Amino acid sequence: QDWCNLGAALDGADAAAAFRRALALAPAAAEGWKGLARLTERDAAQTRTAWIRTARLAPKDPEAWLEMAAAAMAAGDPAEAERLGLLAVALAPGWAAALLLLGVVQGNRGRPALAATAAQRALRLEPVLAAAWINLANARHGQGRSGEAEAPVRRAVALTPGEPGAWSHRAQALFQAGRL
Question: Is 109 helix (H, G, I), strand (E, B) or coil?
């Protein structure tokens, strides 16, 4: 545990060395695998392995399942991403980030009604989550309700006025609604 605490307090190679030392002493330390996973994000295979070990050692840790869902999505496996996202949401139904990712996956899988529901649930928890407003707009467009996509995008722009992506989504919503 002390090595995990040290790893959390350090950066870069020093942190990785501390987490590896913690795992050498206690290979079943989920916190050690979680810390190592966060440090190795540039190496997709190593990160995925660390999150898998975290989930095996701490199966009730929603972060591990959510991170594995994100990795599956990045690897082009949307069915697995949705399965893992649903596990994360089941473990932490009040976690907006899990609902956000689940909604993205469901939208990408051509399930806009489910994506809209996930976005709305996330927004009830965190109404200032601009990405969830964008997801809601995308879901409404996917449902053929492009006219209803503009208001959520406007909200996202209001929350993040300096974010070019939100403005891009607003222009897209206006175009899809025939207003641009």
Answer: coil
Closest alpha carbon to 79 in 47, 111, 117, 116: 111
pTM: 0.73
Cβ(155)–Cβ(133) under 8 Å? Answer: yes
**Would you write out the chain's pLDDT as a tens digit for each of its 180 residues?**
677 677 677 667 777 777 777 778 777 777 777 777 776 666 777 778 888 888 888 899 999 899 889 888 888 899 999 999 999 999 999 999 999 999 999 999 999 999 999 999 999 999 998 889 989 988 998 999 988 888 888 888 888 877 766 666 666 666 666 664
For the stretch 123-157, what's the b/e string if a residue is b when 16 or more beta carbons lie within 10 angstroms of its beta carbon? bebbeebbbbbbbbbbbbbbeeebebbbebbbbbb
Amino acid at 102: L
Using the structure block, give the residue that is written with the tokens 């806009």: 112
